[in-house]
Specification:
It is a single chain. The chain has one domain. Helix content is about 65%, strand content about 0%. The chain is built from three helices and no strands. α1 packs antiparallel against α2. The longest helix has 20 residues. The mean pLDDT is about 90.
Length: about 70
Amino acid sequence: MKKNMGSMDRNIRILIAVVLAILYFTGKVTGTLAIVALVVAIVFLATSLLNFCPLYSLLGINTAKKKES
């Protein structure tokens, strides 16, 4: 897996994941929306830790800084 996420993208995803997890565990969101929020939080956290987003690969997006040679 080639890294395709930049640091700003990672930080935003982690922040969103934390907010969604807080909303879920405090009971601010319930039902189906709560389950969807938790799944999105897990996916955002996993992609942030791996520095790789499969959807970015499919769409040809790369927010990682390019190495100068």
